[in-house]
Structures are given as structure tokens and as C-alpha cells.
Specification:
Distance between the termini: 14 Å
Number of domains: 1
Number of helices: 7
Largest sheet: none
Length: 145
């Protein structure tokens, strides 16, 4: 059976997978052309397979067909972080942290980890280590089906 998530995602703990899926939703109440939207589309493209590749060229589609663009991350960070809803921002930061540690491609890991560190440092927080992440998001005693 095929799955909508990319193969590397299915190898994570269930809790880590849930964090990624919860962060797929963009910021509510922000316009489609807001600087956060291209970053959210790139995020989705990194964890979910596209059901309709014909839409990838549309800049307002659900997913981005482009490469990981450093200008998109810069635009996101140059917008005042305290303007984002904190609940959404922390979901997003935790999700990109997972990608920064767990994605199989080095360039992709580096892109997302760099952005994660920028976000937490701007909030005057310290980045988690991979070991801390794994401990925090380890699955309980329930066996995976």
C-alpha cells in the first residue's frame, strides 16, 4: 500500500511523525502572499508526496515544487517573529527540528536545522540536541502496528 508521507517520515517514531503532520497547516489569518506561506509549502513538500504534480508550478498551491530556497527562510525570519502566533511558531520550530536531525539528505537537513536554530535563538532559547529530541518524542509502551 502506498502512503502520502515520504518514506523517511515513516521511519520516525509516531510522536515525531505527529509533530510533522501537525505542522503542515500554515498560519491562520495570514494572506496567501505572506512571507510564511512559501516556507510552509516547502515544508509540506519535504514530508508529504504530492497528489497532483501539475499544481507544483503554481506559487499558491498546497506544496512547492522548487528547491529549498534560502531567500524564503530569510524573508520568514526578517518578518517579526513575535507577529506569528506562538502556538503555530513552536509547532513549526519543533517540526523543522525533526527534519534538521532526521531527513536523509544532508542539504535538506542543513537547511531546516539552520532555520530551527535561527528561530530558537531569536526566541532566546537553546536548541535541543538530537538525543533530547529523541527522548522527548519517544513512543510509549504501545507497539507500532
Amino acid at each position: 500500500m502506498s502512503h502520502v508521507v515520504r518514506e523517511w517520515v515513516s521511519e520516525l517514531t509516531w510522536k515525531q511523525q505527529c509533530v510533522l503532520l501537525c505542522a503542515c497547516r500554515g498560519v491562520d489569518g495570514f494572506p496567501k502572499n505572506h512571507v510564511s506561506k512559501p516556507l510552509t509549502r516547502m515544508f509540506r513538500q519535504t514530508i508529504v508526496k504530492c497528489a497532483d504534480t501539475r499544481t507544483l508550478d503554481n506559487s499558491h498551491s498546497f506544496m512547492s515544487g522548487g528547491l529549498l530556497d534560502p531567500h524564503v527562510a530569510d524573508a520568514f525570519m526578517n518578518f517579526q517573529l513575535d507577529s506569528y502566533p506562538m502556538h503555530w511558531l513552536l509547532h513549526f520550530a519543533h517540526a523543522i527540528e525533526i527534519m534538521g536531525y532526521k531527513h536523509p539528505d544532508l542539504d535538506t537537513r542543513t537547511y531546516w536545522m539552520h532555520l530551527y536554530v535561527r528561530i530558537v535563538r531569536s526566541l532566546h532559547l537553546n536548541p535541543e540536541t538530537e538525543e533530547q529530541l529523541d527522548f522527548r518524542l519517544q513512543d510509549g509502551c504501545r507497539e507500532r502496528e
